[in-house]
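Glucose-6-phosphatase (Paramormyrops kingsleyae), 339 aa
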Amino acid sequence: MQSVHTQGIWMAEALQKTLADYEDVWLFVTHMGDPKAAFLLCFPVTYYLSRRTGVAVLWVAAISEWLNLMFKWVLFGERPFWWIGESRLFGKNPPQVRQFSTTCETGPGSPSGHAMVTSAVCWVMASTLASFLYLHTRSVLLRAAPYLLYVVVLVAVGISRVFTLAHFPHQVIAGSLTGITIGVFLNRVVPEGRPLRFFFHVSMGLLLGSLLLYTGLEYFGINLSWSIALAMKWCSHLAWIRLDTAPFSSLTRDCGSMLGLGLAQYWKPGGWSLPWTPRALCVALSSMALYHMNRVALPTSPPLLFYSLIFIRFTLVPQVVMVFVPGLVHHLTAKKKKD
């Protein structure tokens, strides 16, 4: 792997030099490719366009991110920003690369979570849009357009992850291919209308499965905190080390969203039936609510409290999108019509 890693570093250097004038663009792309965007942005937008697609997006986002964590724990992938120093191969000819605020993630690097979750979630959206366009136009060209856009998005996210020195190119490719496979499969088994106990079992299964793997690896002498120590050692600004990039943050996000999805469908089976104009209002209100929820700073000490609050936050996300906001809009619009 040494030669693969070395070539990846030189590719990152070439990208940073070539695309330096578009730095803000690539930082924005990597921000939009963050798995959290699938929960906080893609989910509410798609839900009000198509209930089934929205549920599928949340389902695929949670499961693909959880699987990404399992793969990372098993594959022990390096990250470029710490491998440069740890390898000690560049003493006389160090690469001219920079770190950014999004560089210093603390989990292992393989496969790329940004690429894997983005490819899985965007497959759901692209395939749904392609089917819709073909059904209404019978145009093969229009049907192909969402898939072309899908490829462009994956390439852009992949470049942004290499550009920011967060991943090697092979990790991005592995994440993208794995995400596509997961998206195709999970899009066929969307748990729309399943009982609450199903989602409770899924949520607890994700939690217990990951804890079992973590405990098992630790029992055999494998220190799963190795990546956190390296990130803190080689990150150029310790302020860029954030607890919400730690592996257990994604785990609690996934478990919370699955339980929240079950609760939302339990409180309001079938959802609210709204015309298109109120749906647009729901998109705006939900997006604002989730934006401000995510901006609330959580105490990072003790870590258990932080992870518990992450779990609660993402349990509330489906409630906001599927119950609270559409219920409020339904009440207001129905009252207006009555008046």
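The chain has one domain: 2-242. The chain has 13 helices and no strands. ok done for today
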